[in-house]
């Protein structure tokens, strides 16, 4: 990623394969399979049984996550899908995903026209947009909140009105542009389409005024940190080209469903860990929220082990670790 890409909600590392997307962390919960749905350029509307015609669902991986500011960066590899989707034109030189949105580098003024965009649940088919104004700015949360998700519970089983995981210093934009369940991670934009923030949560005590989006300045800082972390080191190949050196880390996350004995057995059998290693990883996941199962240099081997653990219902995730 270049520095320019940190100013985009959607950025392309390679015009033919990789796309990065910024979203809310609570919709990309650790250990869960994540998919991104693109609407193709020739989509003509709603198909049978309320489904969209001309859409493509593609697996995504989490590149980085900041639970305090509720932001996550996803990466989608399109190489296996380009030739099979309506995005790709036989006359085009490369795949051309939807154009990126620019993140504002200025503080939003009170009274600025604002539009909240997302995919609400509850019977609404497709994308929706609401309008309002920027009503104010907030730093941190002092009252209960409900994440703009589907059910009022987060994906790891905890209730979303718990403020303990929210940084008291996180900068938010407060708007009366209504947000509904399912709109998390969508953009809050101004009349020029510039992103003012990322839809995050509803502060119920403020009623119609309590729609919160993570301020664009927080998003820029997060993406700059991700850009530096993904910089890595380049190894020269014999043909003069370079590749970024990296390893792949399989991370186990704490969950409330699997019993300790079962997790221990899976780690021993599938990941070939001894009882001491398995217990150490489980303790890290319990006390710190995550524990590293293994770090592997080969991407396919790492993906294979991660999938095997997921088939055993363990909450695991594959992380790319760039070499310094």
Characterization of this structure:
- The protein is α+β, with helices and mostly antiparallel strands and 324 residues long.
- It has helices spanning 216-229, 260-269, 275-288, 299-311, and strands spanning 10-12, 18-23, 34-39, 55-66, 71-77, 113-118, 128-139, 146-147, 171-175, 187-189, 195-202, 211-215, 234-236, 242-244, 246-253, 290-296, 316-322.
- The strands form four sheets. Strands 6-7-9-12-11-10 form a six-stranded antiparallel barrel. A five-stranded antiparallel β-sheet has the order 1-2-5-4-3.
- A hairpin with a 5-residue loop joins strand 13 and strand 14 (242-244).
- Helix 2 (260-269) packs across helix 3.
- It is elongated.
- The model is unreliable at 1-8, 41-53, 88-94, 149-166 and 235-243 (pLDDT under 50).
Features:
six-stranded antiparallel barrel; disordered N terminus; 4 helices; five-stranded antiparallel sheet; elongated; 324 residues; alpha+beta
Spatial arrangement of strands, main beta sheet: 6-7-9-12-11-10
Shape label: elongated
Number of DSSP helices? 4
Coarse structural class: alpha+beta
Radius of gyration equals: 21 Å
N to C succession of SSEs:
EEEEEEEEEEEEHEEEHHEHE
Uncertain runs are 1-8, 41-53, 88-94, 149-166, 235-243
Which range does the strand content fall in? 25-35%
What is the β-strand count?
17
- Sheet having the most strands: 6 strands, antiparallel, barrel
Mean pLDDT: 76
The residue fraction in helices comes out at: 10-25%
Distance between the termini: 16 Å
